[in-house]
Amino acid sequence: MRWPISQALFRLCVLRNWDVSSGLSRETSLSIRTTAEKDPTMSQDTIKYLLSESDQPKSWYNIQADLPELPPPYLHPVTKRPATADDLAPLFPMSLIMQEMTREREIEIPEPVRDVYRQWRPSPLYRARRLERLLDTPAKIYYKHEGVSPTGSHKPNTAVAQAFYNMAEGVKKMTTETGAGQWGSSLAFAAQIFGLELEVYMVKVSLEQKPYRGGLINLFGATVHASPSELTAAGRAILAKDPNCSGSLGIAISEAVERAVTTGAKYGLGSVLNHVLMHQTIVGLEAMKQMELAGDDPDVLIGSVGGGSNFAGLVFPFLGQQLREGGKKRRVIGVEPAACPTVTRGKYAYDYGDTIHMAPIAMMHTLGSTFIPPPFHAGGLRYHGMAPLVSKVVELGLAEAVSYHQTKCFEAGVSFARTEGITPAPEANHAICAAIDEALRCKLEGKSQTILFNLSGHGHFDMQSYIDYFSGKLKDIAVSQEEIAMALAGLPSAAG
Ligand SMILES: Cc1ncc(COP(=O)(O)O)c(C=O)c1O
User: Fold this and answer.
1) Which residue from 72, 89, 295, 462 puts its CA 20 to 30 A from 148's CA?
2) 211 C-alpha vs ligand 1 centroid, how far in Å?
3) Whose CA is nearest to atom 14 of ligand 1?
4) Rounded Cα–Cα distance for residues 209 and 177 (Å)
5) Does residue 459 have its Cβ closer than 6 Å to ligand 1?
6) How far is the CA of 24 from the centre of ligand 1 (A)?
7) Confidence (pTM)
8) 384-405 residue pLDDT tens
9) 304-339 confidence digits (pLDDT tens)
10) Cα 250–chain centre separation
11) Burial of 404: CB neighbours in 10 Å, binned 0-12, 13-18, 19+
């Protein structure tokens, strides 16, 4: 029996000469069929490689167990001596300090953390078949979609872990900084799950560009302040010099660290540190299983690099396998903005982690702790330094870095959105841009290589940047050598 609505549709189709089975015009229906006939794989090949909740990894991977050489230790910002666990204790709970220093290969993920992860993990791995067709490349492009998390990026992978360990050690309040707002909203989500109070210092220009991220932080019960703020001595000092300062991650870190030590709270960092990178390895560990499901093995691994955590999360488990077992040497590419070219143009040196010099000094690629990147839309990539472990991996020749201007990245992001249907975060556009370049290289060389990149987040809160891109307002900002040299002149003297 036909339902009345179906009958009406049927009559309409006959009347208008539409295809009855699809309800589309005959021409559209025909063109879809001919595309499918031309490319018989179109409707049959797998697009998503999914794992079940029970396949979720039970441990994180620590690359410190397998690296032939480790980064030198953190230094105390005042004494410039190697920082001890006690030096770090005012900032972090002891379990995270131990994770920072351990060389154990596998660290068990606590049950309550895995329970929260199950809300969105394992995240899907996609084969970008439509993007491949658009590029007409023999390369196979895969991406791990971290934008499916509650706040839309990879950041909850460490936020949930950090909030859990703080709660377990009796901490009541945390402070943090955030650039794009992805980290701040992720820690806000995690903090409310584990009953912690949270205060977030968000880079002023990012909060202005993305007020809804601030709203999301509030939604999860945390407070958010534009940084530099009048609430801290660090913020007041910066504002005294430049009342219009647009802020930077380095400044926001100084404010959050100051608030933690002066209010008896603990501090959480969304990237850079060893334990943060380790929490993110759940991404790569899942991706390894999913690539196996796909019957494929990446030749090229790509991630955008701000502080280095989504990049490390994807690539470290693959690098670890390579270091332990030998075999195929994969190309590993970190992608950064040309407006904040930490690895490609910075110096590998000991430097302060923040602008006011309260956080530990680390050996890393750096543009100098006083470097304030020009305001550009990938707010999460505006950090002057790089994770010491990522820097070390680059120094050891295990990974390389490239940089792109923002308009090329947005162009790549638009092609991705129009083929894959996912709106990428501006940070993730950097990884997409490199993946496209690699796929085009494969086309030129006639090679069918396998490319895997980390789609580190969705861009649903970043539509203003896309609007600006389409109206031609986004500019490519060049950083002069003088600017970098000036900031590098402030490297810590005794350690440099
Ligand atoms: C979506 C997204 N990708 C990448 C990054 C860069 O950070 P990291 O290098 O730690 O992954 C950020 C930082 O906020 C981000 O929000």
Assistant:
1) 295
2) 18
3) 380
4) 16
5) no
6) 41
7) 0.91
8) 999 999 999 999 999 999 999 9
9) 999 999 999 999 999 999 999 998 899 999 999 999
10) 17
11) buried
